[in-house]
Amino acid sequence: MKNITLLGGTGSIGQQTIDVIKEHPNEFQLYAYAFGSNIEEALPVLELFKPSYIVVKDREIMESLKRKINYDAHIHYGVDALNEIVSLPDVDIVVNAVLGSVGLQPTLEAIRAKKQIAFANKETLVTAGHIVMEEAQRYGVELLPVDSEHAAIHQCLKGENNKDLKRILLTASGGSFRDRTRDELVGVTKQDALKHPNWSMGAKITIDSATMMNKGLEVIEAHWLFGVDYDQIDVILHNESVIHSMVEFVDRNVMAQLGTPDMRIPIQYALAYPDRTDFNLSDSLDLAQIGQLNFKEMSFERFPCLRMAYETGREGGSLPTVLNAANEEAVSLFLNDHITFLDIEDLIERELENHNKIEKPDLETILELDQETRQRVSHTVLKR
Ligand code: NDP
Ligand code: MG
């Protein structure tokens, strides 16, 4: 039985993690549960599993939860409490499914406590990849990717020697606006942007998929997770989201991983690792039913966010922190109807252009820069 600390339990990945835990009562147990503020979503889960530790975003939510919950639990709030529940001695696995850079410090703590980490929170690797990977190496901890592309690559590389890897091929569905030209993006609505053709995901990542920033963040994530240069990472459009990614070896053999687009599959892979266990939440992949798989070359002109992510990844230093923070803030402003879809990329580009790169930022600098960038972006918008 593996004890699980789940960060971001009320979110899209969090809820799907709960599905997997429910399916395997003899293998996984919910031990600690963290979420932001969605008490309604959390309560039935808490009542069912009665995890001993619960962490929420702030004091107000904590007080409100305490009034509603009907069993004894340790209930706390804030980042320090997150850091605590990832490192409790009885915890075997930490699922990091919070949204955004709030996941950074708990990731570092989980590494230092040498926990198995099922890792969805890509923003953490984008904002502070060098620090996270340095700690992971020091403590001998492997981050097990939940992101479907990286889970695919992880499986393709199993038993291989990294020196034989020629390149990684990340597949991209293209997001909600894949069939539109740039001109046709003027005036698109939030509702349109939130309609992803293949995946059901949280709001932020669905917008990131439409801007292609999600793939940009994944390029940086792949760079850190698999230790490959940016020149060795290619992105290809693939409408069906059946091939989740591929790797090519020096001898031109290409390995791909295929599966139904269901995030519970990579979530379960990371929880069960290094074993595999039955998955009955969706049917087997039916290729005859799908009929054909399509591929198309990626365009950096059509998707400037992907270009910016490659550029900042290559330049490194503090630039990816700025890219991530500006994107998180811009997407949140878009979701709150303050800016248009095309403003997102403009705001990010402006932040990157005005930034004086810091070569190897430490944790404190990253946390400061993250806050400053968000504030500047929201200030720029809200004052106009
Ligand atoms: P959601 O927005 O659906 O969920 C985010 C979760 O984080 C919620 O449970 C939210 O709580 C919680 N949260 C936010 N702020 C805090 C905080 N300060 N303290 C504690 N919890 C907090 O996001 P997703 O599930 O879509 O994505 C989560 C991560 O997984 C992201 O990094 C995303 O890029 C990655 N990912 C997601 C995929 C998907 O299919 N959804 C696919 C691949 C990667 P609440 O809502 O209660 O406030
Ligand atoms: Mg992905």
What does this structure look like?
The chain has 384 residues and is of the alpha/beta class. It has a domain at 2-141: Rossmann fold (3-Layer(aba) Sandwich). It has 16 helices and twelve strands. The protein has helices at 12-23, 39-49, 59-68, 79-87, 104-112, 122-139, 148-156, 190-193, 203-211, 213-226, 264-272, 287-290, 304-315, 319-335, 341-353, 363-382, and strands at 2-7, 28-34, 53-56, 74-77, 93-96, 116-119, 143-145, 165-172, 233-237, 243-249, 254-258, 296-297. The strands form two sheets. It has a seven-stranded parallel beta sheet, with helices on both faces. Strands 11-10-8-9-12 form a five-stranded mixed beta sheet, with helices on one face. The longest helix is centred in the last third of the chain and has 20 residues, at 363-382. It is globular. The protein starts with a strand and ends with a helix. Magnesium ion binds next to α7. NADPH dihydro-nicotinamide-adenine-dinucleotide phosphate binds at residues 8-14, 34-38, 57, 97-99, 102, 120-123, 147, 199, 201-202, 204-205, 263. GO terms for molecular function: 1-deoxy-D-xylulose-5-phosphate reductoisomerase activity; isomerase activity; manganese ion binding; NADPH binding.
